[in-house]
Amino acid sequence: MSDEVRVAKRRRITDAVISIVVGTEAQETFTVHETVLSERSGFFKAAISKRWRPGGDGKIYLPEDDPSAAGAYFEWLYSSKIASKDDRPEPVTKVEQADMRAEFELLVQMYVFGEKVLDDDFCNAVLSAMLLKMENDDAKCIWYPHRNAIRILYEGTSQDCPARKMMVKLYADSGYVAWFMEDDVSDSEEFLRDLCMELLNRRMIAQSMKQWEKRQQWSK
């Protein structure tokens, strides 16, 4: 082990810590080393430099963010592991449907938080965790992110977000009509538009028969 590595580790252990208050009603306070935050996140690097302005208490406040998602990010900063049930989940046939939906929603909230704090590596790690949840070799079926999770993603990300493109492709490749039959779900209009555009583009590419030649399909 080189001296540079030893110095880096010692600095992280003895470095000053900062308190980050996340949420409003279900508020949680996290204590994280300043150097760890600054090295990973441009957002926190800027926030740390501003926290001692006159009238402040030296803390960083994130009232609009989810404490569970933020806590998972802070844990990842030290462990480089995504806080999920398992690295390889148990067969989804043994997991309650609501639990799987809730876990996908948490992963999406984590991705949104990663975008906010400008940490692409964390976003990529969360995206990989989402795909791993779906690719379960022991399961008899594959679970996809629910429409609630997609709505959360679209509300918290920009138009060019890679995770948006992934969701659109997943639904275009493998989606079922039954997925859209639940009336208690509020869909993202942007997602529905993106999905329609993807499907229409695919149909244009695959179109090989003139509409007149298919008239029998619509004849009485």
Give an overview of the whole structure.
The protein is mainly alpha-helical and about 220 residues long. It has a single domain (about 15-210), classed as Potassium Channel Kv1.1, Chain A. It has helices at about 5-15, 35-40, 40-50, 65-80, 95-115, 120-135, 145-155, 160-175, 190-205, and strands spanning about 15-20, 30-35, 60. The chain has a three-stranded mixed sheet. Helix 5 packs parallel to helix 7. Mean pLDDT is about 80; it is low at about 1-10.
Fill in the keyword field for this structure.
3 strands, three-stranded mixed β-sheet, BTB domain-containing protein, disordered N terminus, Potassium Channel Kv1.1, Chain A, 9 helices, 220 residues, single chain, mainly alpha, SKP1/BTB/POZ_sf
CATH class designation: Alpha Beta
Integer tally of domains = 1
Distance between the termini: 79 Å
The helix/strand order is HEEHHEHHHHHH
Annotated CATH homologous superfamily: Potassium Channel Kv1.1, Chain A
Strand order of the largest sheet: 2-1-3
Total strand segments: 3
What profile does the largest beta sheet have?
Answer: 3 strands, mixed
Number of helices: 9
* Beta-strand percent range: 5-15%
The assigned CATH architecture is: 2-Layer Sandwich
The unreliable regions are 1-8
What structural category arises from helix and sheet content?
Answer: mainly alpha
Query: Which percent bin holds the helix content?
Result: 40-55%
CATH topology: Potassium Channel Kv1.1, Chain A
Q: How would you describe the shape?
A: elongated
Radius of gyration: 22 Å
